[in-house]
Amino acid sequence: MKNKGLPWNEQHRPTSLDSLVGNTATINEIRNWISSWIGGQPVRNAALLVGPPGSGKTATVGALSHDYDLELVEFNSSDKRNKNTIETFVWRAATQQTLDGRLRLILLDEVDGLSGTSDRGGVGAISKVIEQTVHPIIMTANDRESPRLKDLLKKCQIFVFNPIDSVDMFDLLERIAKYHNADLSRETIEELAEQADGDLRAAISDLETLVEGKKTREVDVLPVRDVRRGIEGVFRRLFMTTDASAAKRVISELDVDYNQLLLWVEENMHLHLTTPLELDDGFEALSLADLSVGRIMKEQNWRLLAYVYDFLSGGVAGSRKTSPYRRLDYTEPTWPWLVFQGNRRMDKNYTLLSTLARIADISTQRAGRTYVDTITEIVKRNPSQGQRFARWLDVRKDVFEMK
Ligand SMILES: Nc1ncnc2c1ncn2[C@@H]1O[C@H](COP(=O)(O)OP(=O)(O)O)[C@@H](O)[C@H]1O
Ligand SMILES: [Mg+2]
Hints:
Helix content: 40-55%
Order of helices and strands: HHEHEHEHEHEHHHHHHHHHHHH
Bound molecules: adenosine-5'-diphosphate, magnesium ion
Largest sheet: 5 strands, parallel
Radius of gyration: 24 Å
């Protein structure tokens, strides 16, 4: 029995890294970092976990201390955490050995929330502790751009946490609901997962409110979160994940107008794809998605929708390699509709390349190369797609044969 009586978020706090959902790659990198400490050759003295609330940063640290048998010492933001406490308490924890010789894991939670007049001193004091520590230090923060973090960023290995995607969230919520014998429909759980917008803490707490409310007052309403729905929501969630199959589910589960979605992508993807390379890749995948939609319209072959999903998920959203996910306000599309309509008529290999080249502002050689790369990537994940891609794109099969 898990700590009955505690809020559900606490009852279901993951005890081991394996029970965390989402951010798998990041969590594995953190394993490597801690292993370097255990091996006696730390890569970096300190780590900074950055990501939105409810993505599992704090939960990861707890699970890490459990899995690697580390003594966890936590200084959270509600403690008075000024220069003085850092210099005495954190310093002591960081520079003294544990009684039993185990490693100690020091957690400074929510360091971007360091507040008050002693801010600067606080950061300076932390920096000093990081240099001298004999134990691994982990800090967490919501906002990587926070000026308070500026000096700390250089001293830490950074691990980026993305919001939890609604598919992972659904699975977890369903498990928790079952554990509490709650009789909720699939739709209700989906709704909860969607409303939470990547924040698992919010989702679990909403679930608890709903289930407990039902029990006592027979109410049957979802706690409403202020989320703008429809296409903007799809777009946001598309970029929350870098996992192609999750992104694909986000698009495929939703009933949206694909032309509209493409325009949204066109108008806003630069907000998420912030490096030239990412943007370059994003535009190329978008062109391919656009060609697919054109073809669907022309041939009324809706089976091709699967390709649109591939290009938008693995292609566009998957182009985000280094930029962290950020919650942003989007702009309504302004790109003239006609440009897309025009593109649709051009589906010969060379026009495809020149279209790509024009839209992405790159050479046709480069278009050819990255176009090939995008398809190759998809074909690599799903080899059975190769033939079909060649057929419907009207390209020579060898254009994207595996290199
Ligand atoms: N990845 C996850 N897997 C399972 N539960 C999670 C995950 N992330 C968050 N939770 C749940 O949400 C709660 C809050 O997560 P927390 O780690 O405190 O988020 P934050 O990233 O803001 O520090 C946890 O107690 C746990 O119940
Ligand atoms: Mg936290």
